[in-house]
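tool_call predict_complex ligand=magnesium ion
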Amino acid sequence: MKASSTDIWQTPLVYLKGVGPRRAEVLRTELGLETYESLIEYFPRRYLDYAQITPIAQARSEQEAVFRGKLGPFQVRPVAGGKRAILVSTLYDAQAWMELVWYQNWEWVRQKFTAGQEVIAIGRPVYKKRTLQLAHPELIPLSAGKAPEQFLKVYPVYPLTEKLRQVGLDNKRFHMLFEELYRLTGFEREDPIPESVREKYDLLPLSQALRALHLPTSVEEAEKARYRFKFQEFFLLQVLLIRRKYFLKTQYSAPAFTQVGPLLTEFYEKHLPFPLTEAQKRVIKEIRRDLGLPTPMNRLIQGDVGSGKTIVALFAALIVIGNGYQVALMAPTEVLAEQHARSFRKWLSPLGIGVGLLLGSTPPAQKKRILDKLASGELACVIGTHALFQKNVQYHRLGLTIIDEQHKFGVRQRAALWEKAHPYRPHNLLLTATPIPRTLALSVYGDVDVSIIDELPPGRQPVKTLVRTEAHRREVWNLLRSELEKGRQAYIIYPLVEESEKSDLKAVEEGYEQIRSTFPNYTVGMVHGRMSSERKEREMYLFKSGHTQILVGTTVVEVGVDVPNATVLIVEHADRFGLSQLHQLRGRVGRGQYPSYAIFMVPNGNLSEAAITRLQALVQYNDGFRIAEIDLKLRGPGDFLGTKQSGLPEFKIADIVEDQAILRQARQAAEELVAQDPSLALYPTLRSYLTAYAEKHSLELFTA
Ligand code: ADP
Ligand code: MG
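tool_result ok
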């Protein structure tokens, strides 16, 4: 970057003509804008075509539009028992009128405008008691029926706050500031998107795009500029992720297992418990290919609940153990770890392979035995929880880590396990039953390879999903009773949003008592997050082994638990659960050959729109990916992913749901660029943008 151009963009806004100390302060406190550079990156929310004036008679409720008319008399009306006052006026043209209203901070309106004055009014009118009302409109005075020059074309609308308006920072002022900034700088800036990329993907150059964004001559031009900036936003993240993937592969080495080894062959030929699905075979092949390379595998398996991810992980383990290396499988809960240990022991013991189980609750003496065997290499396979990556754990030759429900672990925790392999990196396999829509996955998992198991094992009967209210309680109990009589088992789930919410805990406990008295001939268990982990384990064990027929609990039974004999799931207050969560819960049943039921109980009436949409989606779809897409649309990426740990930065202008096509293009462009020049030596501007971007979003930037 040229020194002079850097300097001008770092100029404090107070020096821009039309700002001054008071406005500079408000720009800083309200919007965080301090320099010319930050101002130019403040994007309009939308555009209005000034030429398209809507006659007041054709105004539509809730639709933002440009109106033109004269102001009626101003009236100050006391409200809230005289404690406050609002300002009311009207806007009228030849055919019709609407009410204008300001609820607060309206002194400046009265100072600036007078009755009878002709204005342009911009805003979103709504009907209030049959009167069309426009609150806090943007007003532009017309002199002799003419607008100031700069409004004759397109009108960019900025996201403004009342505080900004109070100091005269309305859209009109922003337009003037941008004109002044343009006069000073010509919006000349170095472009982070390389010219070759711009040409191939038909993107406006940065300076041109900035002008089209802030001082557009047509709506089309402004849209083209917005496209470019959406592309840029995706492009920066994708370059970052793809470089990370590239450097993980090139900077670290892993043992290459070019032969599948004797164990896999023996297992496949003699002990395979069921034929694999095509999807399982495909994913195993992908894993095999990765394991044959001298670079660490970094593969995520996404598969709906019950799609059979565990045996796929076993195949990976067989290759690695068959080649003389160790495998560590980590799960987020002790219940899950134990379940995996049982499966792995069942599958591996005929092959003469021992499996260690390492939990927080493992007694010290036993723990020590396992640790010794891991360090000496005597133990080839260990399964456990967080205990697996603690300081005192040493592996002889860790060749593969498998992380189940990987999103339950933080980046650091996963890395702590990987660092147990020296001097190379282990291969990594991540499993998740929470499918993430493909395009979101490109951003969240942009640096891993994704395999998808999109097929359920044969013979599964789809879970019958019902939504019922309290009025149907008898019918629900009857269904439950008839399943119990057939020897099946059931889950009854209560919401427990926060582990500390006492009232919810009480509901679970009362529910438990109620079930016990309603079904006195059956054994009822209870499990919730407030119990000690030993008790939880015990309750889960009693249910899995068939000692208890009904398990009353909270979402602690949500993840991965496999009890094929359970055929009924009843979720109380289903309206209080998220969509993906309900789908996960539903996955607890329908895991065997019996027909199963998921019954979502809701209160009588008064369901929120969102709750209805969620329940309808569940009734309609059984496919986790479909559900995930709907959930993403309903909640937006932030809530959908739930944690800040997901590593997904917020997008300023791009929308990960709406702009999927742009994302795909940006991803492709980033792949092409990194393949051609991974160090970005040829693209210093992109490099410096990336550095700033990584810093801003606390992402790790890899350097060659
Ligand atoms: P998830 O993907 O939810 O972790 P699991 O690996 O627990 O699913 O598998 C669910 C159930 O399906 C297990 O009981 C497992 O043994 C069984 N299973 C897996 N693959 C197959 C298959 N190809 N044919 C029949 N049953 C299978
Ligand atoms: Mg599982």
